[in-house]
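Checklist before submission:
- one chain only
- standard amino acids only
- sequence pasted in full

Submission:
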Amino acid sequence: MPELTINGKKHSFKPGQSILQAALDQDVEVPHYCYHPGLSVVADCRICIAEVWQPNAKTGKLEPFPKLVPTCQQIAAEGMVVYTDSPKAVANQKSVMEFLLINHPVDCPVCDQAGECHLQDYSYQYGRGQSRFTEAKNKQPKKDIGPNVLLYSDRCIMCTRCVRFTREVTGTNELMVDGRGSTEQIDIFPGMALDNELSGNVVDLCPVGALLDKDFLFQQRVWFLKKTPSIDGITASGDNISVEHNDGRVYRVKPRQNDDVNKWWITDEVRYGWKFVHSDARLTLPATRSRDAFDPLKPMEAWREAVAAVDAAMSACVSVKKKHLALLVSPMLSCEDAYNLARYALSIDAEAMLAVGPVPFQGEDKTFPGGFTIRAEKAPNARGVRRVLEALAGGKPVANAQGFEQAIASGKYGAAIVTGNYPSDWVTPALAASLKSVETIVAIDTLPNAVTSMATVVLPGAAWVEKAGSFENATGRLQSFEQAIEPVEFAKSESQIALDLAAARAGRVAAGYCAASTRAEMAKLAGLECMANAVHAPEHTATVESDMVMVEL
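Returned file contents:
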């Protein structure tokens, strides 16, 4: 590969890359604001300009460019020598930072971007440390530009990332640059609002605190947040996300770059669709019909009694009443959940019916000009659940939701285990009506609904951010995700519930659920070999320790 030298060290680069791209690929820091790999190059901010030397094509002698050049725009060449730390380059960085801060308000103590703001970082690394500007600052307005985004115009540095995003990625063109000179500002076109399906991405793109998320505004200081790599648990897209949380509570969800799936973006549906996780209506303790509510101060006792009740009812259904068991596995559950639940059902009744729960759809797939696609299918793992159930069924057909309804309405099944975990009410009238013919219903869900109201035993499940597992998205890509927070109160993951039920049946202590070991066990089955070598795991980055000194007052 061709090589160039940056600040005295040689680095390889791909032909056609800019100097800045080559530097970033090699983890060489070059300050930049307006550049983003998913947007066009405009060289607006000027802080990335550097001193560049290049061999003469005829003599081979190293010659300097006549002036500093923007590294985001200049294509790298073999033998090129770049200095971002030379006196000329450093003087430019200080001048650019001084210019950007002339009218910038000192909002850092109350700004949501504090702690992850490039203006703060670069002011510390490349700024002068003091301002020579003594005149009055220009005051710009705060604007409500859409249902999810606020614009603090006086903090804007005019990098135009947001404008280019609405032109090049979404093609909706809501944002523009209005005015000139020191009064220039970002605004929405008259009569328009920033309300496209990807609008929240402009907040991620903004390198300063100009564009802010209304939902996250003043909720949490970012240095207290922990990031856990996860996968979209609401739609079939499989978008890579980071769940940001603190003290067991999710505060925001942001995109995690994956060039093969969602690049740098996520939909607003995914960004804000996790709220059901902390709903006041969440099921938190087991419940058994004809029994008083369990004592919340004795959760272990509640779980033991509920698990014993399920085991007794299942044994009576198959052994005494000579009826079969039906299992409905929600497409909102992970592959590991489906495996553990199906194994438990088949251990009770080898002829148990396995079925995939209802798969919600809304409209049709929509692809934006930038290539990002919103999936109409609103379930993260319909394909993964079916793959697992078919492998365990040993060639027997796996029913869909309609097939499940028709089968249990026949009266052949005496017990049904029904799982949900949808973000909203999902039970259709047809499903509720068909379950009336089943004597024993075990509902495993996160929110109350028609099935939990008629169930013999209700077991509280966990949302996807409360457990680890894997999903198979609409394109067949298997991806694992990690547990971000503990399940609320006394809820458990569906895999752990299945392991508890299996242990009670065998008269032993239940093992703890481990996603990785479950996948290794699954991979031994015909049809599930992919669980060993085809599951894409999130890349782990080194933990960066804060240098902030915490002082107790």
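Reviewer check: The chain has a mean pLDDT of 92.
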